[in-house]
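Need a sequence for this fold. Nothing fancy.
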């Protein structure tokens, strides 16, 4: 499974992210993208986004 690039992720996309505190366990959190925080097109750990509920994490997959 490849990690989505910045061009794959749009505002209001439904995504699964890994939160900072969940990086070791790999637990995913689902939500809707409010803001894209990573400026580069790719990142080895995923593009960092802010969800509508305020959670910040790196996108692992699109829903």
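Here you go.
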């Amino acid at each position: 499974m490849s990690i989505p690039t910045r061009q794959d992720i749009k505002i209001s996309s439904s995504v699964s992210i890994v939160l900072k505190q969940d990086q070791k366990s790999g637990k995913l959190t689902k939500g809707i993208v409010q803001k894209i925080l990573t400026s580069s097109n790719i990142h080895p750990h995923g593009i960092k986004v802010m969800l509508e509920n305020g959670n910040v994490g790196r996108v692992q997959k699109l829903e």
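For context: The beta strands are 14-19, 28-36, 48-51, 56-62.
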